[in-house]
Amino acid sequence: MTATAAPPTPTWTSMTLARLSVELKEFFRSREQMVFIFLFPMMLLLLFGSVFGGEEIAPGVTFAQYFLAGMVASGILNTGFQSLAMTISIDRDEDVLKRIQGTPLPATSYFAAKVAQVLLVSAVQVAILIAIGVVIYDVTLPSDAGHWGTFAWVFLLGTAAATTLGIAMSTLLRNAKSGSAVITPIVLFLQFTSGVFLVYTQIPTFLQHVAEIFPLKWLAQGMRSVFLPEDFAAAEARGSWELTTGAIVLAAWVVIGLVLAVKTFRWTRHDDN
């Protein structure tokens, strides 16, 4: 008899890609996530753009154009922080994480798949928002590699910070039911103080200083440097885009989120002994 060849041993890459496929299928099958990630930001952009879009906040810059940059930044935060924290918390409550821990899937593959899913979904979301801005609100896309390079590192650093913080926050939530009540006020506070729903320089100074501690302010300002005219930098709080400072703050939050995620993450429910 001819011996049956043993199936090839799964590699880390193959297991990660398989897990990514599962993550994407679960995401696109969830109506709630689809509405929250795609439809809700589009509705906000269209709503605020319709009500305040034509108002000029600086020569040649309308509120709708300013708001687009904030919504792109906010979308990255929502996908990587709010949505990810909630979905992981739900998986923990339903013992999905516990079952995954008992499989041969390496923990690094699981988290790599989560990060890849956030990157892909965020990229689609951002592309949709930019398309709306260009078609409806006359946002002019940059034509040089420098601005697109800025967009790339702001997007990647911002996504990394939001993702690591989302993983860390998922453990701080005692259960998925209370998750929305905990996370939503945090996100709303950051949105209103970081130049998303309001022009940043019109926010009280002490709230500006608070917002400067957190990633969303620097995400939004970085995106404004990409999509708004170069001379708008003079209208920023300190008269420049402060891209170096933004990169440092975002990178610091990546490290903070990573440390918190590694130190606090748990695969089982808080009441599971």
From TrEMBL:
Its main location: membrane. Keywords: Antibiotic resistance, Cell membrane, Membrane, Transmembrane, Transmembrane helix, Transport. It is a multi-pass membrane protein. Residues 32-268 form the ABC transmembrane type-2 domain. InterPro entries: ABC2_TM, ABC2_TM_bact-type, ABC_2_transport, Nod_factor_ABC_transporter. It is found in: Cell membrane; Membrane. The keyword Metal-binding does not apply. It comes from the Bacteria. The chain crosses the membrane at residues 34-54, 66-90, 111-136, 148-169, 181-200, 243-262. It holds the Pfam family ABC2_membrane. Belongs to the ABC-2 integral membrane protein family. This is Transport permease protein. It comes from Demequina zhanjiangensis.
